[in-house]
Amino acid sequence: MTSPIKRRLVAAATALATATAAFAVTLTAATVTASPAVAANGVPRPDHVVLVIFENKKANSIFGNAQAPYINSLANNGAKFTQSFAIEHPSEPNYLDLFSGSNQGVTDDSCPHTFGTANQASLLISAGLTFGGYSEGLPSVGSTTCSSGRYARKHNPWVNFSNVPSADNMPFTSFPTDYTQLPTVSWVVPDLCNDMHDCTIATGDTWLQNNMSAYANWATTHNSLLIVTFDEDDGSGGNNIATLFYGAGVRTGTYTEHIDHFNVLRTMEDMYGTGYAGASASATPITDVWTTSPSPVTVTNPGSQTSTVGNAITPLQLQASGGTAPYTFTATGLPAGLSISTGGLITGTPTTTGTYTVTASATDSLGASSSTTFTWTVRKHGH
Prior knowledge:
The protein has 383 residues and is α/β, with parallel strands linked by helices.
């Protein structure tokens, strides 16, 4: 039979062990939250994401333009996507694409519409998270008007979905100044002047700085993210649009992989482990721009190459680094008679003289890619 003293000692030891374990858990949790949270799929899990969308400008009219100094400062200190593309024309289908992975059959800027399919807001809500749409000039919370002053419903996709609460459809005046009170994901849509639709690039850039710079600065130290993008180009740039990510955990750099609205939507969905809306289910998330992800893929330039027509070349092995191995190699512009294996080995016998510009690319196992360009000269015999 156990004595009372022994029972008290056992109880005390158990209590001490429990308290120690609780302290360890608390300390571990504090340690984890001190760094950016990482989702299991290779993208971070920000506390908040704010997406601001502008109108009808091609990428090279924004990036490098002195009329957009604030946007360029964000791009140059964040992730700058130079090969970002809209899906189609005109505006409204692109907003729907980015919000729900589909244009929902809309091919113009008509109003009104009602849909019940999955979308970013409904998926977040189903996952126990929150969404907020903030439209500048919206007359009141939950308004379904097609237009009011410089507000246009065609630029507000969430109002069209019956599975998004009307309370989540808010004027921009409702955007909190205490950013800890933001929803998990927020969309911000400036009015028809401030979104560059009817007014200048400089007008939109100034609006962004005046209204979003405080959040952008806060985001860098509070595990949060700012996304700036455009619905479409002006019809003259192949629908190439400016897109940037700025905030905590973003690796500064210029990124050249092809992305579109579906990739951006998929990335945000993966951040929070929601389901997928429409075409985002088959899109690739953006995984190479985070400080928690591997460094960007780099293809080592092999330098200029020289061969003789009719003579087999010494096999040339291309090299790549960064990203997540293994890599798949491709090349364009190789001299006739040469080929490249998926492992990056160039072999063969050149059949035609000339100087060729070769672009070699490597894609890692997560879809990140990079390329390098070099010349390959094929000479005649005796030269």
